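Q: Could you write out the predicted structure for this multi-component system? I'm mainly interested in how the pieces pack against one another.
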Amino acid sequence: MKTLLLATIAATLSATVAFAQDKFPSGPVTIIVPYGTGGSTDLTARPLAIELEKIWGQPVVIVNKPGAGSMIGTTEMTQAEPDGQTLLINTAAITTAPAIQKDLQFDPETDVTPISLLITSPYVLVGGAKVESDDFSGFLEEAKGRSMFMGTAGPGSSSHFMSELVIEAADLPADVVHFSGGGEAQTNLMGGHADTYISTTASVMPYVNDGRVKALAVLAPERFELLPDVQSSGEAGVSGVDINGWVALFGPGGMDPALVEQISADFAEAMASDTMKEQLKQNYAVAGDLSPEEFKEIYLRDMKTWKDLAAKRGIGQ
Amino acid sequence: MELLSNLALGLQTAITPSNLLYCFAGVFLGTFVGVIPGVGPLAAISMLFPITFYLDPTAALIMLAGIYYGTTYGGSTASILLNIPGATSAAVTCLDGYPMAQQGRAGVALFMTTIASFVGGSFGIIVLSLFSPLIAEYALTFGPAEYFALMVLGLVAASTIANASPSKGLSMVVFGMLIATVGTDSQSGIGRFTFGSMSLLEGFGISAMAMGLFGVGEILSSVGATRNAKIDSDSAKLRNMLPTREDWGRSWMPGVRGSSIGAFFGALPGTGPSIAAFMAYAVEKRISKTPERFGQGALEGVVAPETANNAADQTAFIPTLTLGIPGSATMALMLGALMIHGIQPGPTLIVQQPSLFWGLVMSFWIGNLLLLILNLPLIGIWVRLLLIPYHYLYPAILIFLCIGAYSVRANPADVLVILGFGVLGYAMRLANLPAAPLLLGFVLGPLVEMQFRRAMVLARGDLTSLLERPIAGSVLVLSAIMLIWTIAGSIIRHRRQFSDAVNPTEVGG
């Protein structure tokens, strides 16, 4: 009798667990955006939320938690239950920040579940008013005569790490100068105060299209399908800089793999909507098509790259 | 002629019933957000931002912009009546606005700030519609060296804005700069004085600081103080609200200067209305023949910053719309509102989206006009606000201050920051130390440091290169002259007073 009772309880419990997972989402889903309202990540998350509400039939709430290079919002996400009801959309900053912030209140390897690579595009090196060359080979030549100033969006930002990576890989004579955000960096390029800036297609292409800055290189072994006219760093003989920029979805550590799969599939469906396709087109970016495991590898690999680079080049020391 | 047809096109867009409605909704909300201390435009616009997904981009921008410049109209109200700025850019207005209110001239002060806001706003719009591309181009020539020079000039000018002794003013500027060192180091990325707290990595928020110093400080010091200001409801009567002929005469030139200063600083990304207001005030005080009147209720000290911050509000749209580069967090939101509709601001915006650009410009006119009409009758109501006993009013304001601090980035730590600065503000009042120079040091300090370090990286450590750049060099020389003049002036004054004290008879002769 006792055994039967226990078995029943056990069965009920496991059924509830299974039921709970089948029933995801069981209520409103919160997506934390660790940047301000109206920023590029926010502008990706909000239309996605509208699509996800259609798929899930539950309210999807965007919560902006800016600060500390996206780490305030990220920390808050890691403290939530790993039931999929609290998620995070972040950029590659989630991999660069651990390399320089010593006071993180979470372990980026175990307290974060990488779920889905939403958007990806290569990093583009753009040149300002003072740069004379039109492609990367010419730029490398030019830099031999005149040491360059590589503007960044701030110390520890991905534009900073990518600049250091390029200096390292191409043995480029250059100094890094930090601005407050990509906008200010590119204004200084336009005014000829600094020479280059590296960021994703979404942040540089508007100014490239205006003719205000010029795209010198796509940092990848091959040319990028959406920017066929821009030389790749590989063509110029520079390797080891082929890291892509991305926007991705994360959950708290220890999420059930089946749940991760389901959420990843739902987001893929939302990303396939017309609104998101239109946005991708505008931003010269592509939707990610990696499984959660594959994306996790990239997440861990990038994090290690930045950590090693930070140690090697004395970033944040 | 082209301008006229553009303006006509803009008017056509702006005057459609729905756009008119959004404009009115924006400025109406903005006025209230401005009047309530603590809740700033950034918080209000962030909250309303999601609506823009469902609106036509022009309508969305018209409304968000209305909130933005409407706030600056309303911001001075609490400064004048309660000595608590409603918005950060109205902090300077406290200096002379509140003394005016204590002298029973609250109505006049409010009336003149409304007119000043309108004049400043209109000036900004004229600049925006006539010279946008030109100014955007000019702003690009400003590199780190130029910004550094300009901010140094600001600091020198700032040390004299308070009525306290120069040493007190100067030490408060330095204190403000020191407080601003908390946070991420701009060139190395290392947290300074953060003690492992992530909330401090971004430093203290400007609005939390201003609201704490001025708002909570004022409220704390009122505890136990008997309220002696007798508000006669007479001052709310139209007759007593109207400025005298002398008032108009006094305000004319400060208004022109304030507008120009505001338009200049507004168009420079990274500066904005608060710095513009401080600068306009400092300039007025410096060129005034009677600088001792400042801080005692000088009308110029209210008019100049109010024209400046409103002009800056309008010209802040220049880099945002013509370069696609937002100069502040609020402007970044405006940019976001365009981008969700796939519109990329930039030099081509005026050509490709003429109805949007000119519609927006014309809506600014309409909005400013609406604000004028809206605000003048409200003055009487605001003045009567003072009849509410402080023990009802202040707790409510405290709550708004906390909500405002929290809502900027949804971080509870900011509420503690506001409390901390409130205690500091109270302590400073007890010690008779001026708060305005501290706030200015706090705003300018990080800019001076950051731009200097960037300029040094770009010059590879060559200090003389700063002087070789035409704009930066001349501004730095100007600052040096001003500094020497200030020091020499105070030494001469000191000596004269000293000799007066020794030989009192000689003065008469």
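A: Regarding packing and overall arrangement: Chain A has two domains: 28-121+245-313, 122-218.
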